């Protein structure tokens, strides 16, 4: 089990090794890994549908209740099967699609990381572990969208996707922490026993944060804009991440938390309205697209919206419809995206208006596209038909606004039909006289075998539902509070659902025939700019960049003297207030009488400080500041701190040596000429001095005795076997600190080497 | 500052400095001293020689490149933690040899650790100083 979750990451790390053995060998291994995962999860099927959910846990941070625990129930199993099964098809496809790409191994490294992360998301029981995997999917998605990193468009889209889904990830983490406050656990299988959390004070926040996380991941309005942009990714990535699996993670989270959060208006109404808005708006946006991948992307967003609002309705039929719709969508949309990838690969264009007549040249791809389109259209006996029937059944039994809902669903489903015809059928039919089609030939079998397989599964599940029935029942039991016996079958008779379904298909076909008219309708783009959420994304991002530029210019302007000024002023501000608050005259009187040696040293210090300030040349300043340092170490000697004194001596000597070495290469010494600047610096320095004195005096009055001091004095000889307490602390009691410090020092030395060392080496050669 | 007096003085002083720095290192556990101070003293000696004799001669004198010292220092320091890892005691638990040695007193992993600090400090200081001096040309 753990091995199965790990295997993708192991495979990811071994990709370069496989390619070292030979590209041919590697391309055979690539799809084998998802196949193994798929077979493993298939073997759990019979156990899970009979209710034996699997849970495994390895302790990690037990004190924080964070453990590597995994849990497989119906929902987890369904998603794992989809991820690994479609993963197999996608990996197989990618071995053909990416063949010969200069960075082919890198692509598979990313893709394996993604698959492992995705399996982790859907099987994790511990919410923190789930969050980690969730973030990993965002990161691998970033890497995959930006795969063609020489293109500005790809980099922009990758960053956009990362920022949008990353924001959602953070809100998900916040929700998980609130859930911990509410229930005292991060383990989902334990939290689930609490039942509905609606009584809890945190409930509204948890619900909203979870919704936010899910909506960003599943590209719900107003966060939908990143998904169409993410089409800059290679074809297999769009099929795998941005239609079949990752974007469904949001739907997964909503379904998973439905028994905890469902049933309240804040949950159901939000999901219903936002889901429906997304479904309608994105299909409206899809109508005008001519890029085949964008067309599919907008229809994916619409389908995700449909799943979200079905979850919002929350009735037995709606949840059932959501699950069936989800499976059907994953199967046909992955195929359509892969086909779009093939078309792009073979013809070099994704413009649907330039594509026709490909069917004769690529019969197998055409067959796969045909099956998938039929499923999306909802033609009997595809699983898509069952999906649409159950969707309509859920709508028609919903009480309140039934008519409005039906109209909106009718519109979005008709749009789906339009997209299916335009992207899956149109490129293949017609004459071959087209310019793009002339030199086209069929893709290698790796690129059409998988899509056809998915199509056949779609037909099989449509005609023979028992296999599906048991799994959907298991999923349903996990995501709903009510018991409901699920019985999926293909033919329900000539009822309202069937009639409306047929009308939808007809409406979609007429939309297709009026497409020229649709293209020619122009939208008032001046106004639309301000309704577009991506406009706010862009300007928000721009504002953040401007702000950070501004504060960098103010705070880090490259002059060392400003840095010092800034640091000291900040300390003054932060520490000065409590000092003024707590300082009493008694503190001054507490000082011990001054001895003769101290007076001499204080005089020496003062004189050398004055000399430093008045110095006319840099060398004079360095020497007099050196005197300050040596006087200080004398002070240490007087007070009986030989260790400190020796260190101070050595450091002071080396500092002077360093100064001497670089002094000739510094720019001409300019005393701070302006009187205002001198006054400012003097003021800050004087205040810092006063504050330090005050603090020192206050420390003498600090009543509480430090236990550490006694502990170290006592244990130094007995435990540390040394009489020099300072040194024993350094190398024994606090050795871990020291080891950290010397490591940092070594790294700093490398930094020094990079800054000044390289230059001198160049000269030596 | 290529003067004969300073150069000859430095030749005599270096061994004394080195012995002193090593002395500081090993007595550090019981008397004032320790790896950090010892390292700084040794570096000061090398810095003195650098000023007196120039970069090339100092590098010749050192024989070992500073970066090697840095790596060796880190390695030795981490080596001192190995016994605690092997025996499964809390990380960096000290181990001691029971026979006493003059000056140092008892010998154990903390001294080894201090030796690592010593080497590292010498390495880093000379690295910085040599690099700065090397730029001059």
Low-confidence stretches of chain B: none
Structural class of chain B: mainly alpha
Question: Biggest β-sheet of chain A, characterized?
Answer: 2 strands, antiparallel
Radius of gyration of chain B: 17 Å
Distance between the termini of chain B: 15 Å
Structural notes for this entry:
- The complex is a heterodimer of chains A (765) and B (137).
- Chain A has helices at 2-21, 23-43, 45-49, 74-97, 104-123, 127-145, 152-183, 188-191, 203-217, 226-229, 235-244, 248-261, 265-286, 292-313, 316-347, 363-377, 383-396, 402-425, 445-463, 466-479, 496-513, 515-520, 525-531, 533-555, 560-582, 585-589, 596-614, 618-638, 642-662, 675-701, 707-718, 725-733, 735-764, and strands spanning 54-61, 66-72.
- By secondary structure, chain A is an all-alpha fold.
- Chain A has 3 domains: 1-203, no CATH class; 262-521, no CATH class; 559-703, Four Helix Bundle (Hemerythrin (Met), subunit A).
- Chain A has a two-stranded antiparallel ribbon.
- In chain A, a hairpin with a 4-residue loop joins strand 1 and strand 2.
- In chain A, helix 9 (203-217) runs antiparallel to helix 12 (248-261), helix 14 runs antiparallel to helix 15 (316-347) and helix 25 crosses helix 30.
- The longest helix of chain A has 32 residues, at 152-183.
- Chain A is elongated, with a radius of gyration of 34 Å.
- Chain B has 137 residues and is mostly helical.
- Chain B has one domain.
- Chain B has 6 helices and 2 strands; from the N terminus they run H-H-H-H-H-E-E-H.
- Chain B has helices at 4-27, 35-53, 55-62, 66-79, 82-87, 109-135; strands at residues 96-101, 105-108.
- The radius of gyration of chain B is 17 Å and the shape is elongated.
- The model of chain B has no long low-confidence stretch (mean pLDDT 81).
- Classes of the chains: A mainly alpha (765), B mainly alpha (137).
